Amino acid sequence: MARSISMEAAGLTLAFLILILTISAASSTNQIQILNAERRIDLSSHIVKVFLTLKVENVMTAPASEIVLAFPPAQADHLALVKAQAAIGKKKKKSYVHLDVNPTELPDAPNGTKYFSISLLNPLSSGETATLEVLYILTHSLKPFPAEISQSESQLVYFRDSALILSPYHVKQQTTFLKTPSTKVESFTRVEPTKFAGRELKYGPYEDRPPYSFSPVTVHLENNSPFAVVEELLREVEISHWGNIQITEHYKLVHAGARHKGVFSRVEYQSRPSFSGTSSFKHLLASLPPRVHSVYYRDDIGNISSSHLRSDYRKSELEIEPRYPLFGGWKATFVIGYGLPLEDFLFESPDGKRYLNFSFGCPLAETVVDKLTIKVVLPEGSKDPSAAVPFPVEQHLETKYSYLDVVGRTVLVLEKKNVVPEHITPFQVYYTFKPIFMLAEPLMLASVFFLFFVACLAYLHNDLSIRK
């Protein structure tokens, strides 16, 4: 009897705690209202960029320290990046400060809704307002329709979203602008007031919308930009303390637009470039670090000579051309390799550790990487590696055996999915190193050359003896 009473008491306590958490979460969403929201969606590329400006106000007495962003399930799976900054000052004296953005959850959330919490620099007092600038990027959100096109047809795509901003807060006024690649728009959903002029589609303004308001819209438009997607990218960064860093990048590239149907005519493609294969691409631009050397570009067949390198003290650009133009559904596999001077990227921290300062992401412009793997191969004798990356990545260690290695080289592996050009930011790899291994490699190399020289002399001696 006593046991059943205690179990009932525990159940009531748990229910009370859940009720308190629900009430506190509901009060936190009621604490903020959005005075004005302006959303600008850029559809000019296959990477959809959304710029969101929010003017928020604290309508409760308690201070508010965070703002919550909500994303519908259809966008949550394609969300690559979320950034936020706060506007400080007015007009010419206005400046922006970066704000931390982290995933979060709300107990009363609709099914599949994904949330991100923006931490404010200073809590908002009652009646105080703040202006936030948010950037979030969507990949694989433009769906080709028709799914197959011939060489002479333009590429049409669908984009689906909401005319109203999905938010857990009450929105007093909001407007959405869609920037299209061209003036050719087949159709779009009307949610009055709606206006289309030139290359801009405007939804709104809409006033006094309750939390979680949603009004689905579909835009069918022409988009012939290159849908360049790297299905897998392996970047191997091998550090040698003898003055060089060797970079080897393995690409599996695909054109993710409308699939090509019918035959391919190279004569038509070259004679009518403005009408034939408008959605295809035959050139790619890779941004490489300055002072790059020993650059090569090859595939399974061999070296590809159709590349151009432009380099100076500030940057290097490698323009590559695959063996054939890429149409929808076509793939290409190739390797880019180059060397870099060690002193530009390897430094020593105050605590005595060495660290590599390199760039994350994909060097190819305007590409989406479905799966990126970066392997940092440290010199033999390196220990305790750790990485400092400005966003979440998966990490693990491997061991690589190269020529003349005794115990193998430590390899720090970083993995991330859904990578976009905005992920190209510096990251650091810290490690400790014992200098004795710096003497081991040249001594072993010298011994191998000596043994090779002795073997050659013995071979020549035997050859001369047989001839006599």
UniProtKB/TrEMBL annotation:
Known pathway: Protein modification; protein glycosylation
Topology within the bilayer: Single-pass type I membrane protein
UniProt-listed Pfam families: Ribophorin_I
Regions crossing the membrane: 436-460
Keywords: Endoplasmic reticulum, Membrane, Signal, Transmembrane, Transmembrane helix
Domain of life: Eukaryota
Location in or out of the cell: Endoplasmic reticulum membrane
InterPro entries: Ribophorin_I (IPR007676)
Family label: Belongs to the OST1 family.
Record-given protein name: Dolichyl-diphosphooligosaccharide--protein glycosyltransferase subunit 1
Species assigned in the record: Salix suchowensis
